[in-house]
């Protein structure tokens, strides 16, 4: 009897469960039907996934509960940025910062004046709105025999220059050994007429044996125009390059002449950074801090495309005055689309090398009178003093030795290259007293042997002597030619931090790896460097909250 009663109770509970399940199913079906009736037809597709349905339900709920009544919308005013509307003067100030080669100030002072040569149809002063720009930072000239893309112009009054006061224009021309005759139209303050001279030379910033020696490929050049004796007392405000004397110019470059009252010691120039997909921000902080410890007064970066974290680092150091960053593009028909530009430079190595000569030489001429020495370095290279602690002490020692051999200053002072390869540390393990993120402090095993003399070297360049620069050596010099003093490896060397040797040294790279030694010279800066780097990384938010 008890068993029969128990079965009855269970049956009753089962009936109730089925009943309420049916009720819930009906309610859910009803709610789903009501919801679907309020959705657009596109939402009734059968292939909508669960995540999309959930998101749409949330959006629908928010829309129904947050949209204000229609009447209130008649008086409400949406939030817009009303502070961005600026005067023409403020806009022009911003333009000048972004386009330093544009003579904005001079043009503003003279835009309403009648300025021309002989008559109004000859060499009329060009409006900045009528110039031909190319890829943002370049100005162009189309001639009967070649296209010119001009980057910047500089006033050169160095004592060793045999041509006297001159303006040198840096740019690229799609001709080898250009034959087209062109002219410089100089514009001076308080002059309504231009001073017009024939160009003196096209200085090729490349060796034809390196390749790409073909018509139609943009080649790097330094164009020289002498300033007439009648105007040796004045610095041109701007210069235009034209084919014929009376041509109305399609370019007008501000003439750069930076001459501070006090000259500093060392500037470092870095070619166009191309690290869009590689976050080298932490290593960059270590490199910048080490160079400042060694004595770099300022580092001049040129930037193509970089990772956002690298931008964060550069913005920080620029805000405190330690670095200067100049945006850069490739001229002509070369790609500037992020990503595609990187692939182009990877595949077109000679094009890459030729383009690099523009920022290198721009950096030289912008700092011609500001520093005693200029070094062209990559962010994986450090000129390391061995017997001394700073670059200043190093050069004081080197100058005594160099002058003892020949009593004249050299165009450059070079150091030999030695590899600190990444995988050498893996054989020996990490140093526990040094943070792992300190790449250079951790990697103190290097190849025993140096690369050959005069191969892959880097230099301290003498701005009084250098005319054009290449990555490793000056290509052309003033006075006695491109003399270079090779520093003894006991005094200094180039510490080159790489994952592998350059491609041309693949055969000898095995030997470099098999014969390694420990070199802890960098550890003399360990405490200071770790402190500086860690504080900077912390202030920029690179460390997780502890």
Instruction: Determine the mean pLDDT.
Output: 90
Oligomeric nature of the chains: single chain
Q: Percentage of helical residues?
A: 25-40%
Number of helices: 14
SSE-based structural type: alpha+beta
User: Ranges with pLDDT <50 over ≥5 residues?
Assistant: 1-5, 38-48
Distance between the termini: 70 Å
What's the total number of strands? 24
**Gyration radius, to the nearest Å?**
33 Å
Principal-axes shape call: globular
% residues in beta strands: 15-25%
Sheet bearing the most strands, described? 10 strands, mixed
Membrane topology: Single-pass membrane protein
Family: Belongs to the glycosyltransferase 92 family.
InterPro entries: Glyco_transf_92
Protein name: Glycosyltransferase family 92 protein
Give a written overview of the molecule.
- With 546 residues, this protein is α+β, with helices and mostly antiparallel strands.
- 32% of the residues lie in helices and 24% in strands.
- It has 14 helices and 24 strands.
- The model is unreliable at 1-5 and 38-48 (pLDDT under 50).
